[in-house]
Amino acid sequence: MTPAARTQAAIELLDQIILAARDGGASADVLIQRGFAARRYAGSKDRRAIRALVYDAIRLCGERPESGRAALLALAAGDPALASTFDDSPYGPPPMVVGEPVADTGIAPAWLIAALALSGIDTDQAAALLDRAPLDLRVNTLKADVAQVRAALPEALPIDGIGAALRLPPDTPVEKTQPYRDGWIEVQDAGSQIVTLAAGAQPGMRVVDLCAGGGGKTLALAAAMANRGDLLATDSDRPRLSRLLPRAERAGVSTVETRLLDPGREAEPLADWAGAADVVLIDAPCSGTGTWRRNPEARWRLTPARLAKLVETQARLLDVGAALVRPGGTLVHIVCSLLDAEGAGQVEAFLARHPCWAAAPLALPLGTPHGSGMRLTPLSHSTDGFFVAKLVRA
Fold first, then answer.
1. CA distances from 211 to 283, 285, 292, 323, 325 (A)
2. 338-369 pLDDT per residue, tens
């Protein structure tokens, strides 16, 4: 493909991503994969170049652009080589026109920047949310130790203070490696590993992962429990939950049970666990402001109304989870968000509703105290952004 054809392909993909962000459609990664499937003539270098253009444009534009062309024009304003590809050549984009729409640049929509600032996230912290994310691994201690994995993957470097965490260069094809195929490792951000430690899971415990999704934290809990005890993983998303058991089999986990929940009626299928869990971990659905390094278009999806709905869902799930915890047991609230409405503020509201509960101090390898919990950020801790709190029933 010519450079101009790559630019036009990026514009077309951005058009799809912008519409999906507006209408709640597929993620950028999914749309890019579909786009490449429809462009089989694009070689590996073409695909890398197009993907880079798309994500550079997404990261550059704080507000959702009017079009893919407007986004690429904003990127071209600082890149003469890219600007030269608007040349009306075959398969390339038409020339630039004076006065045509050009996307605004910035970190995020103005209302979201204001909300982050009110939550203690300054401009430098917010800008770091758009840096490129590293590739982190969790060593599955049910099958291997860190030394074994490092011997098989010498390029994997330890992350200070996090015993089972390793970091690889970005774009390493980790799923093609023997340690991955053998279940020695899982791809999991170091921050996700750290907040899971807040559960304090131990062998023989009864543990519920209430919003398990594809099971990343479930498998980390199983390893902490040495594959002994009762581990229940639930979610309302059937496709995501269906991926957990094959992953568990590869990881050598035999103690996990899965249950599909009905949104808004989560308590009914969990009646047999009422007041019986030592730990309930809730990695709640959230705005994902802490994951913009991986999903930068997520900031185009979020609206104040969407945020309010997420906060309402989180509060309901906390109440559902609390009913499952035995006296003296633990409820862990996790969000990959840096907005206080979903983190510190959510915990304050829970404690006001449940006077027999209290926030417990956390001793984690990394993190900064924030409200009744702890916060991780890309700038301060080189992880995704998280808030975690540990709540204990009297």
1. 6, 8, 20, 15, 15
2. 999 999 999 999 999 999 999 999 999 999 99
Reported confidence tier of residue 41, pLDDT bands at 50, 70, 90: confident
CATH number attached to the domain at 135-187: 3.30.70.1170
Annotated active-site residue 61? The verdict is no
Residue 42 CA to residue 9 CA, distance in Å, equals 10
Strands 206-209 and 230-235, by their bridges, are: parallel
Alpha carbon distance 118, 340 (integer Å): 8
Return all residues near 327 (Cβ < 8 A) that are at least 6 apart.
Answer: 275, 393, 394
Look up the CATH number of domain 190-393: 3.40.50.150
| Helices 44-60 and 3-23: angle between axes, nearest 10 degrees | 50
Which two structure tokens, joined as six digits, stand for 152? 């098989």
State pLDDT tens for residues 296-333.
999 999 999 999 999 999 999 999 999 999 999 999 99
Integer CA distances (angstroms), 163 to 159, 182, 273, in order: 8, 20, 32
**Integer Cα distance of 385 and 387 in angstroms:** 7
Residue 282 has phi, psi (to 5 degrees) of -120, 100
Q: Give Cβ neighbours of residue 37 (< 8 Å, ≥ 6 apart).
A: none
Looking only at Cα atoms, what is the longest distance across the chain?
A: 71
Q: What are the residue boundaries of the structural domains of the chain, listed by start?
A: 3-106, 135-187, 190-393
Integer Cα distance of 78 and 303 in angstroms: 29
- In terms of Cβ atoms closer than 10 Å to its own Cβ (0-12, 13-18, 19+), residue 118 is exposed
* pTM as predicted: 0.94
Among 211, 286, 336, 356, which one carries the catalytic annotation? 336
CA distances for 342 relative to 119, 156, 236, angstroms = 10, 34, 20
State how far the alpha carbon of 340 is from the alpha carbons of 73, 97, 297, 352, in Å.
Answer: 35, 43, 21, 16
* Nearby residues of 13 by Cβ (< 8 Å), 6 or more positions away: 31, 32, 35, 50, 54, 68
Here the tokens at position 363 are 């001793």
